[in-house]
Amino acid sequence: MAGKPIDAKPIVKWAGGKSRLLGELLDRVPRDIGTYAEPFAGGAALFFALASERSRGMRKFKRAVLADRNEELVALYTAIRDDVSAVIEALGAYRHDRDLFYTVRAQSTQGMSDVERAARFMFLNRTCFNGLWRVNSGGKFNVPFGKYKNPRILDEDGLRAASRALAGVDVVSRDFAEVTGTLGKKDFVYLDPPYVPLSRTASFTAYAKDGFTPHDQARLADELHALKRRGARAMLSNADTPTTRDLYEGHALHVVRAPRSISCDGATRGDAGELVVTTWEAAGIYEPLRTAG
After folding, report:
1. What spatial distance separates the first Cα and last Cα of the chain, rounded to whole Å?
2. Which numeric CATH code is attached to 76-161?
3. What per-residue confidence (pLDDT) applies to 210?
4. What is the reported pLDDT for 75?
5. Fewer CB within 10 Å of terminal CB in the chain, N or C?
6. Contact predicate 50/188, CB 8 Å
7. Model pTM?
């Protein structure tokens, strides 16, 4: 990745985004990687940070794969990668307006190009309540209009930086196991699944219409062991709960504190325990490298 250094950051607001946990995560990522993979891309904060470091010669990876089951998010990253100027032009036609928001929210994306879907996604994401992306069982986005006074719908510089970071990156809509199944030695994968809920009201897995079930959490834990056996380095984030400690037993569990705001009960928001799980370090429970924040 030659040329002007990149300073790329997440271009979407995403529940559970890792911007505030980046220091803890970056300290653990190898400097020289074969394939870098994020099967739960979401806001892709770690990817954009690594791509920026790579552009400065601070980090190496030969190939990168971003995956997510949310097809609208995949269309967004694909369009930003392939034709960011068209996305910028399309997004420039949107304005901060309640009636327009609900008209756009009701639109079907069937038959839309990736550019049109990307502009729609960005508009809804920047103007909806709390920047939350949530879909119902039919896969329809159903978050209400936000209370922002003057949200920044179009950030041209940010989109162009993201496009440069995404150049040559594979962006796919697949189950996590399809992405991790081909990884081996020298490869590195960061897994950031929908979290095991801290409480009934804190449960939130509606990023995609199929959700993420306890069975999926168990499948992911099995895949973590498989990656370790194949020699791939894997790092995973999840809530610090008795369930997750059981799921990831046999790996290194690093306990950190990070802001959580998904619960609909305001009293349960704030800092919460999280686990950063690594497969290449000695098993056990460890204190954080640094204070998240």
Report:
1. 30
2. 1.10.1020.10
3. 64
4. 98
5. C
6. no
7. 0.89
